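#onboarding

Welcome to the new folks! Below is a worked example of what a typical request in this channel looks like: someone posts a single protein sequence, and someone else replies with the predicted structure as tokens. Don't worry about understanding the tokens yet, we'll cover that in week two.

Example request:
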Amino acid sequence: MAEIGGTVVLVVVALIVLFAIVTLVKSVQIIPQGWVAVVERLGRYKVTKEAGLAFLVPFVDRVRRRVDMREQVVTFPPQSVITQDNLTVHVDTVVYYKVIEPKSAIYGVANFIDGVQNVTTTTLRNVVGGLSLEQTLTSREQINTALRGELDDATHRWGIRINRVEIKAIDPPPSIQDSMERQMKADREKRAMILTAEGQRESAIRTAEGQKQAQILAAEGAKQAAILAAEADRQSRILCAQGDRAASYLQAQGQAKAIEKVFAAIKSGNPTPELLAYQYLQTLPQMAQGDANKMWVVPTDFGRALEGFTRMLGAQDENGVFRYQPSPESGSSPDRPQDDDDVQDWFNISTDPEIARVVAAAEAEARQEIR
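Example response:
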């Protein structure tokens, strides 16, 4: 009996310890960060426990469900949607939502994820059904905004906030895809041809403008060259004329000086009329030595000419012979007339400043063109 009683006591103690452990486990709950626990007492909502250590009444309170309070991302399978122009497209959507009222999310709908999916499908069909295929493909932002507004209004009473709705893909039927690809290819080829034509037109315009500018510059250069050549020719002619004028003047002065010296030498030598006649006879053959002279005729009144020449230069003495008589002014040679003031510039050999400036400008422009 004693052994049986000891065994019963051990069993009772073990049951009490087990009951205490179970009670402790049910009365203490650890809730992780970002989660909350919906607690029920005798089947009715009691309280929502935040993250941390939560104490419950054993066998009276229980955790109905733990709810993730972080933003959730749900990808729904592609939905078949008919557009306004009766074409079926497959739309793949992604919904970003967040639970803001755990009590409403648990008791407001049986499964809020299934509810969000069904509302998304219904809203997507309503939105896309009012758009054509082209509008559907090009109006993703508009579809996203409409879906977010409709879903947010529908899920607000469930304690869920829809943050964003994104269209991942819109797949038209294969036949439509082929047609769209052909159309896109044609559009790209069209744009390429247009761009090529625009490039050729722009190139032709630029080339024409370049040729125009080149011709203008060439004409300007030819004009400047012609002007400078004409100016140089004018200056050259002027300088040559001035040189010829000065040379003629100096030559005339030299001839005058030579005649003066010869005449003075003749007067200082006191020549007789016979000597002058002899010199005249010596000069006559030289007059006939020219290549253009074919015939030389001695005038018949040669003696009379010599007599007049001797009468002009001399006087007849008592023997009837003409002797040279110097003129009263023979003792003093006349002064050579001085050059006038306006003639002095004829012999200036310095460079004209204006000509030097024009030449320097032409040389500078030639160096610039060479560079």
